[in-house]
What we know:
The protein has 592 residues and is of the alpha+beta class. Helix content is 49%, strand content 12%. Among the domains are: 1-39, no CATH class; 380-575, no CATH class. The chain has helices spanning 2-20, 62-67, 83-107, 111-120, 126-136, 168-177, 182-186, 205-208, 210-226, 230-245, 249-256, 292-303, 305-310, 356-362, 370-388, 399-412, 429-433, 437-458, 466-482, 489-503, 522-538, 542-552, 557-564, 578-583; strands at residues 69-73, 140-141, 147-148, 190-194, 200-204, 262-268, 283-290, 329-339, 349-352, 365-369, 419-422, 425-428, 507-509, 515-517, 572-576. The longest helix is centred in the first third of the chain and has 25 residues, at 83-107. The radius of gyration is 26 Å and the shape is globular. The chain binds zinc ion. Zinc ion binds next to helix 18.
Amino acid sequence: MRTTRLLTVISLALAGLAIAACAGSTAPATAPAAAPAGTPAPVATPEPTPPPPPPLTVVPDVEARVAQFARTPLTADISALPASEKKALAESIAASRLLDEVYLRQVWTGNPALRDRVLAYDGPNAAAAREYFAINFGPWDRLKGFEPFIGDTPHPDAAGFYPPDLTKEQFEAWLAAHPGDTNAFRSGFSVIRRRDSGELYSLPYSQEYLDLLRPAAEHLRKAAAATSNESLRRFLRTRAAAFLSDDYYESDVAWMDLDAPVEVTIGPYETYEDGLFGYKTAFEAYVTVDIPAESSKLAAYKAELPWLESNLPIPEEHKNKNRGSESPIRVVDLVYSAGDGKKAVQTVAFNLPNDERVREAKGSKKVLLHNMLRAKYEQILRPIAARTLAADQLPHLAFEAFFNEVLHHELGHGLGPGRIKKDGKDTEVRLELQELFSPIEEAKADVLGVYDILALTKRGKMPKELLDTVPPTYLAGLFRSARFGVHEAHGQGVVSQFNFLQEQGAIAVDADGKYRVVEAKFPEAIKKLLNAYLMLEARGDYAGTKAFLAKYGVATPALEAAIGRLTDVPVDIRPLFPQADELAPEIVPDAR
Ligand SMILES: [Zn+2]
């Protein structure tokens, strides 16, 4: 009863909006087919019952697939938060939960109906099927290139953003015939639908997901009313307005200025889910709290950035003294994540916003998830180290080292050559190295992170234990990265670190196949390797980079064997959020 009434209200609201929007050039003349607007609500006359769907089929190994993800509770220290900020936290979580539902539809419009069937399913492996559906936000295995694990519907590149069978050619042909539709169709904040007559039309997110975005905005406004932090209030208010206007610019700017104990990232951001064009943004949320101790350490490292640039092991003329645009970094603990930010393999850091207008005006901000990193350290890095490192080096493995390597990797992206001169003309490393830029820049940041920690430790700016813990922790991290695809470009960047350091004698393999760092040779070898990467970048040397990766980027049989011993280590974690469940309990989908 309740569901039907709610549906009626939503239908009327959607119909009203559609009419109001008709004055615009690209709004549909009728309400979308997805919502039953325009027809009377089916209260009195029951519709003819459709034929029952075929029984669900679930892949037999679904339990093993779920087991790849180690269930791990993530919590934050919120004891110091005043009641006002706890309330803001709780309301932000409540808003985020609604975005889980938006994202489920964005992945595939058939998902909500299928989710109901999965919840009702009581065949073999029912619990695992439900869990894996939740992990993947749909019936396709994201670790296996979107192979279906429930049913046999192929994954549509169009996701839930376009009609599932729409081709690129049809889309472009429509725009060629209707150039006035171009902006609305290519917008990051609209879906494309098709009428029975075959005509295409666009519908902004604020209408397509109104039934969820309106209550989400309401929660954000309540959070804004609760907080006593002005920067958070401004972000939450402007973001709530954006949910209903599809204009995210002002709230993206407000997000850059956030300086609050509760740090919220919520909205439509990344476009990877749109496999057709990469235009459409997916909703996600990261509700986090600041870690004051980590933030103050970070501030100290940032003050060292000019010194770190001058300390690079390359000739003076290649150092980048005016790479001024320093982008803010925050270190936080995750309390709840939602949607695109929670699917399958978990993010440990993100860099937003993506809107180039905001980037030009304000830069971008990097956020590191401290408790997510710790979870991955405990569940993945430690077991990998136990299977690959010599026993006497295992006691030196340390989370502090792992965390600082990630942090200084991120800082390292801002050091070294960026804009360069090649053959007398101004250019950029990225443009010269093309598809090899990303693997070489990531490898550079890995090695520079280690180099900088060792340098800052010697300078008395970091604890001296890191001199012992960073090398073996870094080595274990190489196995972690090499685990996925040593044969593609990114894997080659990882393998090149490994092989170069082994050639220099800084990494050795014992008779039992276990690896060790040779500490006496490690710092000098790291310096040489860093010099190699930085000079390839400084010269914009595409051919040299290609040759370097061809020489060092191939995994040896011994390395392949070591990676082969990692098959029983979890691929990733499945985060659980007990604090969120207390602060803002989940509403079961049926109750909406
Ligand atoms: Zn990186």
